Every structure is written in C-alpha cells, then in structure tokens.
Amino acid sequence: MTQTTKPSLKDFCEHFINVEQNNNLMQFESDGVYLWQACRMAIYYRLSQSCGVLEQPHQASLKTPPLTKIIKLLRTLVKVIKHRPSFPANATPSTLVVEHPRKVFWNGRFQDVYSLEIREQLSDLPCSWFSLDPGLEHHPEYQNNEIKLPPYWIQTKADLLGKLHFRLPSNTRLQLQTLSAVINKNFNTDIISTNYLETQLLRFKSLENSYLNLMRRLNITTLYLTTSYDNAALVSAGRRQNCKIIEVQHGTFSRFHLGYSFPDTSHAPKYLPDIFLCWSSQWENRFRSINVFCNAQAHSFGYLAAQINAYKGTITSPFKLVVISQGVVGERLANLILENIDKLTGLEINYKLHPGEYSRWRQYPSLVKLAQQNRVKIIENCNLHALLASAQVTIGVFSTALYEAFELGSKVVIADLPGHEYMEEMISDGHATAFFDWINSLPSSRSSQSTLP
User: Fold this and answer.
1) Cα 423 from Cα 139, distance rounded (Å)
2) Whose CB among 182, 192, 210, 273 lies 3.0–4.6 Å from 247's, allowing a Cys bridge?
C-alpha cells in the first residue's frame, strides 16, 4: 500500500487485517501488555489518516510541536499535584459504571444516555454503587446511592508517566522498535514511531495499575463501560480483579469497525468484555456476525426509544434536508454537497456538525463556502431527533444518526465517501439510498408543490 494512492476503506481494512495476521501482531506482547491489541483502533486511525483514507479529525496535526508538548507536560504536572482526589473505601461487593464522555441533556441534566438504563436500575437497588464520570475533575459527588468519581486524575497521571520513556528497559524498547518497523514498512509511513509505542505502553501500565487499585479499594465485582477498544487498560484491570465486564452499545459497527471486528478466530482478543449489550435483536445478530468472542445480548436503549416515540410522525418539511457531518470525512462531505449544490435548488440544507467540530468547522474550506449560501444553515447544539424527524431527507456517511433518521421516517441517503462501507447492509436492505442514485433522480427543476424523491 503506497501513499501515492488513496485506497477505499474496504481495501485499507483488508490490508490492515492481512498485515496483522501475516505478522502475528495480535500475539505481540511486551512487558505483559498485548500492545497491538490495546492500541489497535488508535493505530488504525493514525494509519488510515496518514494514508489519506480518512481525514484527520478537524484538521488536527498528527505531530505536536515540541514547545506545545513541554507546556502541556508542565500543566499536567501541576494538575496531578493539585487535584488528586481521595477515593472512598468500600467493604461490600459493588458495581462500577464508566460513563461515555459525550453527554446529552436529558431529564433536566447532561448525562450519558448509553448507560442510562443500567444506572437507573442500579439506583433502584438498596446498596451503593460507583461511576466514573469524565465530566468531573476534582471531587466525588454523591447522588442517592450513586457515588460519582472523577477519572481525570487517573488519566492525567497516565499522560504524565507516558512521557517518561527512560523507565523502559532496553529489551522492551528494542521490541517496540521492531514493531514500529514492521508497521511502518507495511504501510509505507513513519507515523507509528517507537516513541509513540513507548508512550502507549507506559500509559497502559499506569492506567491499568490505577484502575486496579481503585477497583480493589471499591471492591468492584461488576464493570460496565461503553467503549472497550478505547479502554483496554480498564478491561485488563477488570480481568485482574475478576470482574464481570459488560459493554453497552454506543454506536454503529460493521465488519469494517476494527474495534469490534476480528476475522481471525484462532486467538481470543485479551481486552474485550464478557458481554456486549446491543440495542435490539437486529444489532445483536449483526454483532455476532463480526465478533464470536463476546456474549452478545439484546438490551433496550430506553433513551432512543423515548425519542422515537416522541418525534415519530412529525410532519416533515418537503424541502428540508439534513446533512450529518463527521470529523473523519468532514471536509469531503462538505465538498460533495458543495459540488452538487446546483442540483439541490430550492432546498433548505441543515448541516448538523458533530460535537467535535463545533469550534473547528471553519477549518473546512468547502464548508466555509457552503455556509455562504443563504439556504444553508450550520447547526451545532440542537434537538437532533426533532431535527431528523422534520426532515424529508437525511444525508451522511456512517453516523449512527442515520439509523435514527430511518426510524423517525426520514429518507436516508449514504454519501459514497470513506466509511460508507459500514452502511452496505442498510442500502442492500432498502433502508437507504446511495447519494448519486438519489441526486440523479431529482428533477432538473422543482415547483413549490414538488417534493423530494
């Protein structure tokens, strides 16, 4: 795979899996850590961005200037010293819920809607339980029988220790140097440096140790989380604590989502949960088709069900179109709409940004030009489900919001951009239409009485 070409996401994923299998990377172990497994998704994103398959989210640079690193390190050190919280001790067996960092305003406050039902069920029990809330930085909060703890100190400590590369023995550094060479050679890049791998290994060891000490102090026997592929050290700590580990679905997945898809079934991955709770039996079947290592179970997603019940049947505007942006294809999606703007005459285009794009969307040249159109509205915070329910058509690439748009009665159109492979099944089932098939079906001129196909 060369950098002179831009392969499709499908081709890239197939090459990624071949490199993984041919070099036995799933079994690569250094200092007790299966580092390729622990960093698999992070490495996938870095490589896919360096090869031009996906965009760097919000045009962020993959390389940080040295002065910025020094300033960040000093700030981290101050925060570690100043804001270390005291965690309570607990004698009876208990549960820990690690909340998703993205919060939604629901029932009068911002909260993690993915773990909401689990937390509501735990709140009905007579015993105390714990949650790690990324929104907290300094001190625990007590809400009825829930004790909310700040993970900030754990993460900040790991960021700091991840810089201390001199702590690694020479044989470990040699192992990581070999791994770096294998990866970079197969992807014709230098983005996965030995320095990067050393940082990831040190961060993992720090996180695992901190989480394990916390779980022992709290006497945790059951662990809930929402993104195991971003929390390998947490899962590893849970294993060492002999916890029952349960992941709650937080978004879409497919055979191209390498956080969950493991084609090689000869070796079980080390950092997956025991149980994966899916939003429905359809999602359960889809998960089972790409992952044989977790016990997938259907589990209701109460928040989404409530939103669909509230807004399904909303009278749609025949000229209202919603575009769902995503950071890894943000510029390309905006450019696609801009290139076809003349075919969208008379339509109100509501361009919904991903939360990570709110402060950065002006770095997308095509979106800046698109925003200059009178009938284009750039949307940040809003009631997403009310917006989707009122739209005749919703355009996107592989956002979970596209499934929600379908459930709310909006016609779903999939843009042929990297990641559209996630939605192959949705198109083949007749629940979505490819972008160019849809746009070529539009009449060349529309009267005020005509509607979108």
Assistant:
1) 42
2) 273
pLDDT at position 313, please? 87
Percent of the chain that is helix, strand, coil (3-state, to 5):
45, 15, 40
Query: What's CA 256's distance to the chain center, in Å?
Result: 13
Give yes or no for a contact between 363 and 59, defined as CB atoms under 8 angstroms apart: yes
Interatomic CA distance for residues 282 and 111, integer angstroms: 26
Burial class (CB in 10 A: 0-12, 13-18, 19+), 69: exposed
Token digits of residue 271: 């950092």
Angle at 207 between CA 179 and CA 21, to 5 degrees: 30
Q: Which domains does the chain have, with CATH numbers?
A: 9-67+163-199 (no CATH), 82-157+205-305 (3.40.50.11930), 313-439 (3.40.50.2000)
90 secondary structure, DSSP code: -
Q: How far apart (Å, rounded) are the C-alpha atoms in residues 55 and 428?
A: 27
pLDDT, residue 68, reads 74
Residue 311 has pLDDT above 70, yes or no: yes
Q: Tokens at residue 217, please?
A: 């102090």
How far is it, in rounded angstroms, from Cα 450 to Cα 442?
10
**What contacts 359, CB < 8 A, 6 or more positions away?**
none
Could you give the angle at the alpha carbon of 41 between the alpha carbons of 40 and 42, nearest 5°?
Answer: 95
Q: 23-38 pLDDT, tens per residue?
A: 999 999 999 999 999 9
Q: pLDDT tens digits, residue range 374-405?
A: 999 999 989 999 999 999 999 999 999 999 99
Structure-token pair, residue 371: 């925003």
The C-alpha atoms of residue 64 and residue 68 are separated, in whole angstroms, by: 7
* Alpha-carbon distance values, 225 to 131, 170, 281, 355 (Å): 10, 35, 20, 21
Q: What is the dihedral of CA 86, 151, 129, 140, to 10 degrees?
A: 40
**Neighbour count for residue 224 (Cβ, 10 Å):** 25
Q: What does the DSSP assignment read for 210-227? A: HHHHHHHHHTEEEEEES-
Assigned token pair, 351: 């361009």
Label residue 85 exposed, middle or buried (CB < 10 Å: 0-12, 13-18, 19+). middle
Confidence of residue 125 (pLDDT cuts 50, 70, 90): confident
User: pLDDT at position 451, please?
Assistant: 57
Cβ 93 vs Cβ 219: under 8 Å: yes
Token digits of residue 301: 């997603």
**The Cα angle at residue 110 between residues 108 and 112, in degrees rounded to 5:** 120
H or E stretch covering 392: strand 391-396
Q: What number of other Cβ atoms are within 10 A of residue 175's Cβ? A: 20
- Give pTM, 2 decimals: 0.89
Helix (H, G, I), strand (E, B) or coil at 105: strand
